């Protein structure tokens, strides 16, 4: 594990890292913010389509409240890099920068796009070993595709993630164009398998998280209008299944980091209370 | 004046604008954040070498405290764009993205690189007319080359800028490699003229600002080590001239926006008290 860059920030450290991943069999990058004092817990942030390990750490304005709460954050890249798989670099919503945080099963992708294993096992262990955070002090949140990742990984591994929240998540990808394209490419045509990586379908099939899930969604988000996010489907499924869920519809806000920065403090406080 | 993009942020608006500048005879871009409630005043932010109107508004994390204080910010681009002047695009520290916020006098540049007039006259008027901020409620701050811009424009036009602050400013460009290159290109070989656009030399020659100048400087800033910033020269000149100056040396911090984000709240509070 190698530090590429360090920037002192709010008395703590913003750092950029690279390591050899056994899950993806590639180098993987991630960024961290580590507060100056004792670290009470770790938040894993999963970014959205086209992002890297840099977006959240440069644009969310989260370091101040993380420092105040004594929490670190780790922001992995959104896919393996440096490969040349079929169609991997042809579009912005599939392949590189668009892993959807699952373990792929299709030829080519199944050898490297193992992002669920990378996040829930490898990175989870690395946080404990390299950053001395106990296994029961790790939570997860994310944005858009990363909101989907946080919700699905949180529901599939509730014992690993103390609390789960999301900004503008893709909550029902089996019914959204982005999800249909990605799941076809990573999982093939069998839609029964797709449902295992869809937050709404997971709740419908009996998966639960012991804590309330927190979702913030911009009311003027173009991808909500275009039917990519489908927030109401998760609300309905959680209500029917008695999974606690808080959805804050934020009037006038869009899909950008300006929206995230406006409410990131609320999300960090939510995780801080439960960690 | 045309809005290119609007993003709701902390209940206010982050916006990107374009207008035809009479000073530069080009289109000019700037970004703004305007809080939701009454606007008490406006801060002009001047960015550093290679930056555009986007850096501060996306990376400084300033919107929250601006919203709390009822202050707007306007962040102009760092030079005219869309031109093809001699050597204009050959290096990152001269020409496009590197105006040094002065009115050039050399052939070619003198027709368009009129950034002092653009900021101190045109933008100053635009803030009053388009954003309804009184002329006596405008302050200025900036980073690196933009810190130089804030200090020199503040000292040259103290009646126009209520308060002046800077992060990692180039305080004595006539004695720094960046400054020598830029001033030669924009002002020619006459060093008497150079001194009129150098904060340290302006203080030495009798220019004053009625308020204390505020400077934050990272102790691990590579450009401080390389002799580009020369912070101590301004400290000495201000002491000798009884110009009030507060310099905060911040141990371990570098030249990046991670540094700026860590102390931007202090700077906004400084301006807020005086506006």
From TrEMBL, chains A, B:
Keyword entries, A-Z: Hydrolase, Serine esterase
GO process annotations (BP): formaldehyde catabolic process
One cellular component (GO) term of this entry: cytosol
Catalytic residues as annotated in Swiss-Prot or TrEMBL: 144, 221, 255
Top-rank taxon: Bacteria
Reaction(s) catalysed by this chain's protein: S-formylglutathione + H2O = formate + glutathione + H(+)
EC number of this enzyme: 3.1.2.12
GO molecular function: carboxylic ester hydrolase activity; S-formylglutathione hydrolase activity
Function: Serine hydrolase involved in the detoxification of formaldehyde.
Family membership: Belongs to the esterase D family.
Annotated protein name in UniProt: S-formylglutathione hydrolase
């Amino acid at each position: 594990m190698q530090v590429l860059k360090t920037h002192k920030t709010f008395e703590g450290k913003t750092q950029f890292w690279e390591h050899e991943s056994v899950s993806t069999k590639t180098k993987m990058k991630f960024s961290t913010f580590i507060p100056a004092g004792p670290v009470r817990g770790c938040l894993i942030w999963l970014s959205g389509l086209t992002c890297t390990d840099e977006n959240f750490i440069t644009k969310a304005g989260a370091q101040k409240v993380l420092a105040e709460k004594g929490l670190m954050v780790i922001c992995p890249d959104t896919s393996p890099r440096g490969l040349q798989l079929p169609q991997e670099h042809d579009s912005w919503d599939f392949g590189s920068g668009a892993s959807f945080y699952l373990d792929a099963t299709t030829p080519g992708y199944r050898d490297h796009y193992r992002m669920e294993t990378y996040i829930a096992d490898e990175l989870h262990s690395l946080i404990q070993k390299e950053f001395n955070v106990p296994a029961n002090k790790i939570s997860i949140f994310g944005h858009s595709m990363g909101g989907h990742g946080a919700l699905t990984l949180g529901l599939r591994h509730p014992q690993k993630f103390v609390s789960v929240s999301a900004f503008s998540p893709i909550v029902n990808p089996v019914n959204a164009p982005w999800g249909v394209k990605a799941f076809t490419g990573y999982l093939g045509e069998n839609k029964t398998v797709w449902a295992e990586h869809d937050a709404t379908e997971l709740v419908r099939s009996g998966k639960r998280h012991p804590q309330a899930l927190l979702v913030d969604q911009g009311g003027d988000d173009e991808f909500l209008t275009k039917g990519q996010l489908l927030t109401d489907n998760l609300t309905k499924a959680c209500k029917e299944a008695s999974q606690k869920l808080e959805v804050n519809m934020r009037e006038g806000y869009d899909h950008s980091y300006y929206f995230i920065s406006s409410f990131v403090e609320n999300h960090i406080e939510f995780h801080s209370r439960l960690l």
